[in-house]
Amino acid sequence: MNEPDHPEKPGHPEEHGTEERGAVLRLPTTADTEAFGRTLAAGLRAGDLVILDGPLGAGKTALTRGIAAGLGVTGRVSSPTFVIARTHRARPGGIGLVHVDAYRLDPASGTGVLDELDALDLDTELTDAVVVVEWGVGVAERLADRYLLVRLRREPDSDVRTAAWEWVAR
Ligand SMILES: Nc1ncnc2c1ncn2[C@@H]1O[C@H](COP(=O)(O)OP(=O)(O)OP(=O)(O)O)[C@@H](O)[C@H]1O
Ligand SMILES: [Mg+2]
Asked: Which domain does 142 fall in, by range?
């Protein structure tokens, strides 16, 4: 059981401030990770930034797939191999998703995710969508005043993933 001050589902910082953080969740299967994404999506609003931290194969794309399902956006979420970002349109009345994979962005180069997204000329305004950035630590924070940081970890020789989230104010 989670402590009351370690909720499983993030409340929104506009109501709860950015002090909130969740307990470490155990995610034994891919389906559990996707379900956690759907839970996260329920608390997200247009313009929210989500930064996903975690090593190769940690489940960042799987989590994004769950967020996409929770938002009900169009298109299949996959690892963008050649593109930095992919836009998923909102269903009527819903919120869209901009899925960014910043793996190839070098934090030291000075080119931030914002420059890259500007160059892509996305057809969705970032303020109209939820923006999820894989490998976003160190390169995507400046996209918003606050962001939901989700850390995914994997245990050696096991499918079990763990996840912890917190809202971070810049
Ligand atoms: N508990 C779990 N949660 C998430 N994925 C899991 C889990 N157990 C096994 N997997 C598998 O691990 C892989 C995770 O891949 P995924 O592409 O989501 O990771 P990633 O963090 O996005 O990797 P990358 O850094 O390459 O972008 C998938 O093949 C998935 O099926
Ligand atoms: Mg990925």
From this structure: 28-169
Specify the pLDDT at position 142.
85
Question: pLDDT by residue (tens digit) across 41-72?
Answer: 999 999 999 999 999 999 999 999 999 999 99
The CB of 54 under 6 Å from ligand 1? The reply is: yes
CA of 69 to the centre of ligand 1 (A): 16
> Which of 122, 120, 132, 114 minimizes the C-alpha distance to 47?
132
Question: Is residue 88 assigned to a domain?
Answer: yes
Residue type, 43: G
Ligand 1 pocket: which of 78, 79, 100, 103 to mutate (most atoms within 8 A of CB): 79
> Does residue 7 form part of some domain?
no
pLDDT, position 4: 46
Q: What is the CATH number of the domain that holds 142?
A: 3.40.50.300
